[in-house]
């Protein structure tokens, strides 16, 4: 199974492309499409609520193995740039640049657009990504795009198989009540393998749960390995006690806190940050406001940190988050035009 995020600005053609790749399913601030045929299974997530909010963008990317970065013939806008900044902060591996609406442009203009994207993307994770030229109306380039997705998916499958031996961990992205069954969540097995009847914890609430049953694309299964998109019926918990971003994991795998100290690398495209600033902390699908309490640069306390610099940030908040020591955090300032500030790992 290959999980795809389709991202870009509002007029990038991403939603039309998503609708041509799969059948529309769950709709919230992200829209999920599914495709299953001849052994090929795709889950496509469109960051519907972006750019109004950055949460759908982070959600779509976190739920995916491959990103399709959509750029229309009109060219890159500020939101395309913001998407590239985030992908770079995440060190995102697998993606395809998709020049959409090719039926409304000319080959020479599209060639020039690709060159411009290559120039802007130089030095970022997208610099070596393949480029597809497609039209969702005439279907020009669609088969070539699907072949690119298939090739990237094969590489992802090999990488994901290496995660099966790790302790099980599931990210929750939707939750609802099903009459006669109870609490059902949709999510992705980020690592390890889960089984029906497994007893685990819902984090950060630290509530014990039991997996009543597992479904993979509406088909009952006894287990699900790393990379699988799953539907889980859970015992011992109510939907009201679960929210997007919660983690289902084995005991002892998650740390829970309201504040963190991070070894941080700031984006060169952000603004200077200062002690007292309010940022937004994202880890997986979890998010929480956090205040900068302390900045350390080159081993000494500082009032500010500059764009592109490395520093240690101590952040405090009031909302619990669950994380493992190896997790990558994203920092954002939701009041700025380019909202992503930097990334960080737990200070050791």
Give a short synopsis of this structure.
The protein has five helices and 27 strands. By secondary structure, the chain is an alpha+beta fold. The two termini are 36 Å apart.
Provide structural commentary.
With 348 residues, the protein is of the alpha+beta class. Helix content is 18%, strand content 43%. It folds into 3 domains: 2-161, Rossmann fold; 169-249, Elongation Factor Tu (Ef-tu), domain 3 (Beta Barrel); 255-346, Beta Barrel (Elongation Factor Tu (Ef-tu), domain 3), CATH 2.40.30.10. The protein has helices spanning 14-21, 55-62, 78-89, 107-121, 142-161, and strands at 2-7, 23-27, 31-37, 40-46, 66-71, 95-99, 130-133, 169-178, 182-191, 194-195, 199-203, 207-216, 219-221, 223-224, 229-235, 247-249, 255-257, 260-266, 273-274, 278-283, 286-297, 300-302, 304-305, 310-316, 321-323, 329-332, 340-346.
How would you summarize the topology of this molecule?
Elements: E1 2-7, H1 14-21, E2 23-27, E3 31-37, E4 40-46, H2 55-62, E5 66-71, H3 78-89, E6 95-99, H4 107-121, E7 130-133, H5 142-161, E8 169-178, E9 182-191, E10 194-195, E11 199-203, E12 207-216, E13 219-221, E14 223-224, E15 229-235, E16 247-249, E17 255-257, E18 260-266, E19 273-274, E20 278-283, E21 286-297, E22 300-302, E23 304-305, E24 310-316, E25 321-323, E26 329-332, E27 340-346
The geometry reads as: globular
Specify the number of helices: 5
Contiguous runs where pLDDT drops below 50 for at least 5 residues = none
Q: Would you identify the CATH H-level superfamily of the largest domain?
A: P-loop containing nucleotide triphosphate hydrolases
Indicate the CATH architecture of the largest domain.
3-Layer(aba) Sandwich
Assign the CATH topology of the largest domain.
Answer: Rossmann fold
The assigned structural class equals alpha+beta
Beta-strand residue percentage: 35-45%
- Termini distance? 36 Å
- Overall mean pLDDT stands at 96
Q: Measured on Cα atoms, how large is the radius of gyration?
A: 20 Å
Q: Residue share in helices? A: 10-25%
